[in-house]
Design brief:
The protein is α/β, with parallel strands linked by helices. The chain is about 30% helix and about 25% strand. Helix 6 (about 175-185) runs parallel beside helix 7 and helix 11 packs parallel to helix 13 (about 380-390). The termini are close together. The structure holds ligand EPZ.
Length: about 425
């Protein structure tokens, strides 16, 4: 199994192109199931999760093609993907595929809306918590679907089509907001989604659906109105920049020092992490080309942060922030409120010398002067990348095992960091 070797100590200087967001690309690809015409997506990141979703979609009969690279095109530019669900041949999403990636469960929305039936495996366990699907089931029932759970599958039927309704989420949920948006787009009548997720990836999906002919207003606020239409058409849409990738590299620079332009990142999608990075002592300047982050030799300040749905501080940057403040002056507190078990990086950061005390959902991090390289591994992708960041700021060599987690969410991380002066390489295993 591949591993990544990092030698710490170098500042990061240069430009890092930010890829299209994994968490926007996945629902956008799934939206192709809503129409028999072609949905073309630009700026799709080259990631293992995207490759897996391509397999899942082809199982449903979605034809796919990828544009070749044009002469002079930057090797890091995203893919252009053409998806055509002219003829959906199978409305079942099997366990073998869904269990590998939770987001594939989301096909239930468009399949049910267009084909009036869907049988989708329950996603099963997950490294960061139990992650049930009750909000999805309730929302689809609200839209008139009959739903049974049978032998590990969610079997959904709406023989006469879905009917618009009021859907109120008990807790903010990104996935169930995506699914309800897609399902309501083809439902009869009006749907109002209350307590909807406000993440930039929701706004991106809604923008694409509108290009496909959907009638949606309020995406980006907690109340979304969807006026159902009879059919949707093809469209062309570019995936929004990955705010988590941008935030991750920003944390790396804040930790190692240096000066990096995060090309393509914008202030509006980053929000709270920019404020936290400023509190930590980094200097952030939005420019036309992206966000510039600098930190001079001054120390890192401790912070108290709670993860929250957007526009709050994202759970997907919690592990990276913990790596950063492990070298702060003073004591930081990080409270995780989205997932109950998202602290796998704590023990591994401790192997590098971090001083972290975990009490329920709160981590207390007492800054240390230096970290020291070691062998580490993690069981989810944000935890893995936090170890890369810590390794960049540690003395000596760090080996990050189980690299496939990184490949799920970070496109060519070693090339991007290496181009900015980091000593980082992939060792084939
Ligand atoms: C999305 O997961 C992201 N995944 C996650 O990114 C991200 O951490 C999460 O949103 C929160 O921002 C993708 O976009 C592909 P939720 P999702 O529904 O949609 C509970 C990464 O590293 N819940 O917003 O699955 C749930 O357990 C990942 O890229 C229910 O109880 O998250 C959690 O506590 C990992 N019942 C909370 O809601 C349900 O039916 C929010 O989860 C659904 C969710």
């Amino acid at each position: 199994m591949d591993k990544i070797r990092v030698v710490g100590g170098a500042e990061l200087n240069g430009t890092i192109p930010i890829s299209g967001a994994k968490n926007a690309a996945l629902p956008l690809m799934i939206a192709s199931l809503l129409t028999e015409e072609t949905l073309t997506l630009d700026n799709v990141p080259r990631l293992a999760d995207v490759a897996l979703l391509k397999r899942i979609l082809s199982n449903h009969g979605v034809d796919q093609s990828v544009d070749g690279k044009r002469l002079g095109q930057n090797g890091l530019a995203g893919e252009t993907l053409h998806l055509t669900a002219g003829n959906i041949v199978d409305t079942t999403a099997p366990y073998e595929l869904v269990s590998k990636m939770r987001a594939s469960f989301w096909v239930i929305g468009p399949l049910l809306a267009r084909m009036r039936e869907a049988k989708v495996s329950l996603p099963g366990g997950c490294a960061i918590g139990t992650r049930p699907v009750d909000f999805f089931i309730q929302a689809l029932r609200d839209l008139g679907a009959d739903i049974d759970i049978d032998a590990g599958y969610v079997v959904a039927r709406a023989p006469k089509g879905l009917i618009g309704n009021r859907v109120v989420f008990p807790k903010v949920t990104v996935g169930a907001t995506h699914v309800t948006l897609m399902a309501a787009a083809l439902a009869r009548g009006e749907t109002v989604i209350e307590n909807a997720a406000r993440e930039p990836e929701i706004v991106d999906l809604a923008a694409c659906l509108v290009k496909m002919g959907a009638r949606i207003s309020g995406a980006g606020t907690s109340t979304i109105h969807v006026d159902g239409v009879e059919r949707l058409s093809g469209a062309r849409h570019a995936v929004v920049a990955d705010r988590i990738e941008a935030g991750t590299y920003a944390m790396a620079v804040a930790m190692t020092g240096g000066d990096v332009l995060l090309e393509g990142a914008t202030e509006d999608i980053l929000g709270t992490p920019i404020r936290v990075l400023t509190d930590v002592g980094a200097e952030i300047t939005p420019t036309n080309a992206g966000i510039r982050i600098r930190r001079n030799g001054a120390g890192i300040s401790a912070v108290d942060v709670t993860t929250e749905p957007f526009p709050g501080f994202p759970t997907d940057l919690q592990a990276q922030l913990m790596a950063l403040v492990s070298k702060a002056r003073g004591t930081s507190h990080i409270r995780e409120t989205i997932f109950e078990n998202r602290f796998m990086h704590v023990q591994e950061l401790a192997r590098l010398g971090a001083d972290i005390h975990l009490d329920g959902q709160v981590a207390t991090i007492t800054g240390v002067d230096k970290l020291k390289g070691a062998q580490v591994m993690a069981t989810d992708l944000r935890a893995s990348v936090s170890l890369v960041i810590a390794g960049l700021a540690a003395e000596g060599e760090t080996f990050i095992n189980r690299v496939y987690h990184l490949d799920r969410g970070f496109e060519r991380i070693e090339d991007k960091l290496g181009a900015c002066g980091a000593t980082i390489e992939r060792i084939a295993g």
